[in-house]
Amino acid sequence: MDIGIVQPELIYLRGAEKQVCKLSHHLTKMGHDVTIYTFEKKENYGFDSSLENVNIVSLDTRWFISSIFSLNHFRWVHLIKKLSSKLGDHDIINAHNHPAQWISKFTDIPTVWMCNEPYYRDNFIDNYYSANIQFTLPISHVIEKIIKNRYPQTKLETIGSGADLERDIKHIHNDYFDLIFVGPLHPKKRQLDIVKAFSLIKNDIKNVRLHFVGGTVDAYSNHIKKSMISLADKNGLNIFFYDSISNEELYSLYDVADISVFVPESEPWGIFPLETILGGIPTIISDQCGVKDILPDDHPVVETGNIKQLADKILEVKNNYDEYKNKTLQTSKTITENYSWESYSKRMETIFNKIIE
After folding, report:
1. How far apart are CA 214 and CA 191, in angstroms?
2. Are residues 129 and 19 in the same domain?
3. I need a surface site. Which of 32, 70, 198, 254 has the fewest CB within 10 A?
4. Which helix (H) or strand (E) holds 129?
5. How many structural domains is the chain composed of?
6. Where in this chain does the record put each Glycosyl transferase family domain (predicted)?
7. What contacts 297, CB < 8 A, 6 or more positions away?
């Protein structure tokens, strides 16, 4: 099969970009020809190792120039049209993150939209340019509900995503209780909630180290970081921040992590918590995290924004650590069997075959 994948950018090392690169890697391993079309790709990109046998067509044009989305939209129409003129003779197009799905308006090639997160509100331009999508694949049931309401004309099937580890986690024991969080500093990621929760239990858990990987992305991020540092200092908590780091550096943090906490609002999926579960690290998620769909009913879940509940759950995990670690190891087997990147790619392959038959 000859597959064209459209992704707005390959700049950042986020979950959405990892998903595109891992999918491309496994589709090529399965014998398919894959070309990625993008507005912009960074040289020496962090996920390049997954793209060795993938063709890349880039406009080398900045895809995002304004925080006012409506201004970007008119420009994106022009860029999508320009990108469509470069499409090869593919059997199918797989559009990923917004506004990649607009490519369907400018090609007769069947287009499947892998929807991690649609545009945040109803929009005439978006609805118009998304009208020719043949099939939409919501990443979770939360996104499925939005898609049904926003794009009632499209056929859909909730497909999930994937996760795996590059190597086993070593579980290095030390004198600290280490937490890890991976994701850019942003109000919706609610990293400050984690510092608040540990502040409530500072007398119950000694030698805490809080590791936040992802760095700042805008003025809001810088404000959150200052608030986190101030609160941590006030309560005697050790806090560390890391920008974009290598896989080797990330896995060194996984090696010492005793707990993973990921409690965002409106999170479509969550590759990071799946990775820590795969590594046998007890992991707490929020009730607005999409991966809740695939985890056991007794997995540690807290209400988004409920600091007291989060603090209590962290303490419960700490005080019953072996029990939670064993549960995590059991859950990791299910994820390995059903939600590896290879499994995700095979599900996508099945959908593609269905569309072009």
Report:
1. 11
2. yes
3. 70
4. helix 124-129
5. 2
6. 166-325
7. none
